[in-house]
Specification:
Elements: H1 2-43, E1 50-52, E2 59-61, H2 62-78, E3 83-86, E4 90-92, E5 98-106, H3 108-112, E6 119-126, E7 129-137, E8 142-147, E9 151-154, E10 157-158, E11 172-175, H4 187-196, E12 201-202, H5 207-215, E13 221-224, H6 229-241, E14 245-247, E15 261-264, H7 269-276
Parallel strand pairs: 3-5, 11-12, 11-13
Antiparallel strand pairs: 1-2, 3-4, 5-6, 6-7, 7-8, 8-9, 9-10, 13-15, 14-15
Bound molecules: D-MYO-inositol-1-phosphate and calcium ion (CA) (2 copies).
């Protein structure tokens, strides 16, 4: 009897602890994403310093760093021992089952040119599985949120991928790396094949937003040849939780730690994969 009571008490406190950490993770994610985006809004269309990373058009602005700083403050205040991987600061390695994957501004070139298609993107990985994602574009006030197994949401409303099943009548999105990729089935070759079929392929300049727009059914598919984990981690979860499919270019389970991404509504996935891998219409 005593044992049973102790077991129940233990289970109860374990579940309470789990619930507490889940809520805290979500709250921290939302607070950090909004705080980074508030910095973007404050500096938008104003003066700030811009410098180059490798390559002439791979920019970083003063605002990327400021956004990253406020995001870090919030994450570290609540979870000082979590691993952080962030675009500008790199990896803050810690022994933890949780990893925060942060892009303090996705769409920096847009931001630097006062084009309001840019966002903060943050994902939380637990033991190698993406469990939470948030992407916020403060200029059109669109907050995307996804939780593993619970769906994807735009401003608290559940979203779903599109139902288009023919690639030739689809609306697609892509992006191009800041250095030219001279490889077989390069970004331009794939782009050319689609454009020759008069398929609309948008290039908006923020991979995180592109992925969210697939999740919301605005795009039927998105592909890009060379992304980093912080560009895709949150958007990947968004698409999967909205009922879509995300893979690498071999059609294998997606990992944000390799460069290629194909994210679709699921129905045009094989058709687009075929074109990306050198196939023809
Ligand atoms: C970039 C954007 C862009 C994609 C680039 C990314 P950044 O991220 O997501 O859409 O085409 O490959 O590097 O540099 O603006 O954070
Ligand atoms: Ca990015
Ligand atoms: Ca960035």
């Amino acid at each position: 009897m005593l044992f049973a009571t102790a077991l129940i008490a233990y289970c109860f406190s374990y579940i309470k602890g789990l619930y507490y950490i889940c809520t805290m993770l979500q709250q921290t994610l939302i607070e950090a994403t909004r705080a980074g985006a508030a910095i973007m809004k404050e500096y938008f269309d104003k003066q700030f310093t811009i410098s180059n990373k490798e390559g002439v058009n791979n920019l970083v602005t003063e605002v990327d760093h400021k956004s990253e700083t406020v995001i870090f403050e919030i994450v570290k205040k609540n979870f000082p021992d979590h691993f952080i991987l962030s675009e500008e600061a790199g990896a803050i390695v810690q022994e933890s089952e949780y990893k925060w994957i942060i892009d303090p501004i996705d769409g920096t070139i847009n931001f630097a040119n006062s084009i309001p298609i840019c966002c903060v993107s943050i994902a939380v990985e637990k033991n190698g599985e993406m469990i939470l994602g948030a992407v916020y574009n403060p200029f059109i006030d669109e907050f995307f949120f996804a939780e593993k197994g619970k769906g994807a949401f735009l401003n608290d409303k559940k979203i779903q991928v599109s139902t288009k099943s023919n690639l030739q009548t689809s609306c697609l999105a892509t992006g191009f790396p800041y250095s030219y990729l001279d490889t077989l089935n390069s970004p331009l070759e794939v782009f050319e094949k689609l454009i020759r079929k008069a398929i609309p392929v948008r290039r908006c300049g923020s991979a995180a937003i592109d992925l969210c727009w697939v999740a919301a059914g605005r795009f039927d598919g998105f592909y890009e040849h060379k992304l980093q984990a912080w560009d895709s981690a949150a958007g990947w979860l968004m698409v999967e939780e909205a009922g879509g499919k995300v893979t690498d270019y071999k059609g294998q389970v997606y990992s944000p730690y390799q460069p290629n991404i194909l994210a679709t509504n699921g129905l045009i996935h094989e058709q687009l994969l075929h074109i990306i891998n050198g196939g023809n219409f």
